[in-house]
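Journal club prep — side note

Before the paper discussion, L.F. wants everyone to see what a predicted structure for a comparable chain looks like in token form. Sequence:
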Amino acid sequence: MTSPSREVPVRQWVLSLPHGVRFLLARHPDLCREVRGIFARAIHSFYIRRAKAAGRPDGRCGSVIQVQRFDSAIRLDVHFHGLFLDGVYTGVGALRQPLTFHAARHLEDGDVRWMVRHIRSLVFGHLHRRGFLDEHAALSDESGDDLDEMATHHAAAVQGLIPFGRRSGQTVLLFGDAVPDRRP
């Protein structure tokens, strides 16, 4: 236990998504906010449930989440980086009661696997209810109704493909890739 003025452990959680979902989040800022909220609530509830199991029913946690839109090759890749307190504070909301931090127990591989399945279920369920994914978690026919030139660029970018021209549909070459011989 520590007082609120001391440093407390922080853990980074990253949510990466399938290409189709990245495309949707790039096209729909409101949907991006909603998925970010699902991610935050899922991790917060994970810490709160663990605290309850350890006898701390009034635990609260905190986080800062950044939407990152590109990968290291500057390809469109909407994903989330979150810094979460690795534990909970108790005493929140009680007058004149000091806040106390309780570090979470060690994170196990099984915890991460459960969180991946849980967040996937929450995100895909939300996208299905909103009409963006079908019952098989594939992009619904309606999710591409607004495909203009920018959407075509977005779709190609999340897949690392060239959207237009004679090389349309081919993979974008990255620095260090072998360049094909173009001699006649």
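L.F.'s comment for the group: The mean pLDDT is 84. Keep this in mind when we get to the figures.
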